[in-house]
Design goal:
Helix content: 25-40%
CATH architecture of the largest domain: 2-Layer Sandwich
Mean pLDDT: 94
CATH class of the largest domain: Alpha Beta
Radius of gyration: 22 Å
Strand content: 15-25%
Bound molecules: adenosine-5'-diphosphate
Shape: globular
Number of helices: 16
Distance between the termini: 54 Å
Largest sheet: 7 strands, mixed
Length: about 500
């Protein structure tokens, strides 16, 4: 029976293929690590051809493992967002390494746009702040780097796209150049309301519209794969960027539903309903998904250091031997003893947006021990989450009553209880953790016309943490955190201030 869905999850550090059965349970997985290139300080690149080879290999492995391609109904796609690829239409060959979302090489070009007063127009059209993070300035850089790049793009000889578009191009044997609306929403070139490319923004960034993919919905049969790839053509029936796919994976489909993924960094995405909500708290306004005629918009906030703080405690300070040891160590204390760790290792993200800030440990006394520092590190995840939820509330979004969580750090029950306590919210962790791939599978299931594509998974009993801290202790802890953040900002020579 052809009831399986092949989910492709092309992430920053690895590429995975997962086969999901009709009940959306995983039945086979294949994974390949992805090589990171750091040609200069602040530059991060991927080899797009290597990514494509990994997709083919992982998909073939999964297909073989479950008994062949005839068992599959279609493909769902999810990917690292914002990463920019340039390739030649005639040959399908990348013309440069892909510029990865973390890459800051276009900081100066973006600063020039900012200085010329363009941030307001970009933000009101796209919901995004003006930042090198997003694809548009990366596309422009690539067009400048490739000989005759811009002219060839205008002539249709050179194509641009995020990783989803690159994969759809290759999966269809170069027949289809398409991107889903959630990925398009991260370029700085798409009008968030109309979900179409904007000529004025293409002109502002110097990106010819002819080189961009067609924007499609997240759960529709966009195209069929080239039959020779897997032995039979498969419809590509669902596609969304990784954080949006995780939102769908969690089934966070109603306004006020929110998810946060605690990995190396942490990404909060809150569903705000069928109309975009402009942020005045420097969250990003973005698209949650477009399914058929229905769109759900979202507000998004990123924490730069979440699990990476725990890695730092482990690898640089050597306070723990393994990430999971942080839990018992934190629980060996009744409280943090006034110690705060502000994890601004790479600056502070939303809602502070202080690129120059650096990490700080404050409130040490003669009795402070490694356990205090480890506990403060774990607690910093909860405080940063609280800041994001406060920003959401300031933007008029309903405060979530339940926060759905996934990612490596959620294995830590102490951290999750602290999130519940500091955020005054119920925290729910599904037993099945692959929310990003599940989201892609759900979208594909819907795109294939399946019933129940967005239903809760049968037999998945989530872990739930409920707030239990008394209000006085919580408010005192939060006040201490806010003082600590200000101190870290001041220590970096920056002006103190509110969340931007
Ligand atoms: P990513 O997808 O960003 O690579 P993962 O979701 O795989 O991240 O999560 C990995 C992160 O989770 C690492 O930074 C690791 O330190 C952290 N982590 C894993 N287990 C625990 C734990 N029990 N307590 C705290 N942090 C943990």
């Amino acid at each position: 029976m052809n009831d399986l869905i092949l989910a492709i999850d092309q992430g920053t550090t690895s590429t995975r293929a997962i086969a999901f059965d009709a009940g959306l349970r995983p039945v086979a997985v294949s994974q390949i690590e992805l090589r990171q290139h750091f040609p200069r300080s602040g530059w991060v690149e991927h080899d797009a051809a290597e990514i494509w080879r990994a997709v083919v290999k992982t998909c073939r492995e999964v297909i073989d493992r479950v008994g062949g391609v005839t068992r599959f109904a279609g493909i769902g796609l999810t990917n690292q967002r914002e990463t920019a690829v340039i390739w030649e239409a005639a040959t399908g060959k990348p013309l440069h390494r892909a510029i990865v979302w973390q890459d800051r090489r276009t900081a100066e070009a973006v600063a020039r746009l900012k200085a010329a007063g363009h941030e307001e127009e970009v933000q009101s059209a796209t919901g995004l702040i003006l930042d090198p993070y997003f694809s548009a300035s990366k596309y422009a850089w690539l067009l400048d780097a490739v000989p005759d790049g811009r002219a060839r793009a205008e002539a249709g000889e050179v194509k641009l796209g995020t990783i989803d578009a690159w994969l759809i191009w290759n999966l269809t044997g170069g027949r289809v150049h398409a991107t889903d609306a959630t990925n398009a929403a991260r370029t700085s070139l798409m009008d968030l309301k109309t979900q179409a490319w904007r000529d004025d923004l293409c002109a502002l960034f110097g990106v010819p519209r002819q080189a961009l993919p067609e924007i499609v919905g997240c759960a529709e049969a966009v195209a069929e794969t080239e039959p020779s790839l897997f032995g039979r053509a498969l419809p590509i029936a669902g596609s969304a960027g990784d954080q949006q796919a995780a939102l769908v994976g969690h089934g966070a489909l109603n306004p006020g539903d929110a998810k946060i993924t605690y990995g190396t960094g942490a990404f909060l995405v809150a569903n705000v309903g069928p109309e975009p909500v402009a942020s005045t708290s420097r969250l990003l306004a973005t698209l949650g998904y477009r399914i058929g005629q229905d769109s759900a918009y979202a507000l998004e906030g990123s924490i730069f250091s979440a699990g990476s703080t725990i890695q730092w405690l482990r690898d640089e300070l050597g306070l723990i031997g393994a990430s999971r040891e942080s839990e018992a160590l934190a629980e060996s204390l009744p409280d943090c003893g006034g110690v705060y760790l502000v994890p601004g290792f790479t600056g502070l993200g939303a809602p502070w947006w202080r690129a120059e800030a650096r990490a700080a440990i404050l409130g040490l006394s003669r009795g402070s021990t490694p356990a205090h520092i480890v506990r403060a590190g774990l607690e910093s995840l909860a405080y940063q989450t609280r800041d994001l939820l406060d920003a959401l509330a300031a933007d008029g979004s309903p405060r979530p009553t339940r926060l759905r969580v996934d990612g490596g750090v959620t294995a830590n029950a102490f951290a999750m209880q602290t999130v519940a306590d500091m955020c005054e919210v119920e925290v729910e962790r599904p037993a099945f953790q692959e929310m990003t791939a599940l989201g892609a599978a759900r979208l594909a299931a819907y795109g294939l016309g399946r019933e129940g594509a967005f239903e809760p998974l049968q037999g998945d009993t989530p872990a739930v943490w409920t707030p239990r801290m008394d209000a006085k202790a919580r408010d005192a802890a939060l006040a201490g955190w806010r003082r600590a953040v200000q101190a870290a900002i001041l220590a970096a020579g920056d002006e103190p201030g509110d969340a931007a």
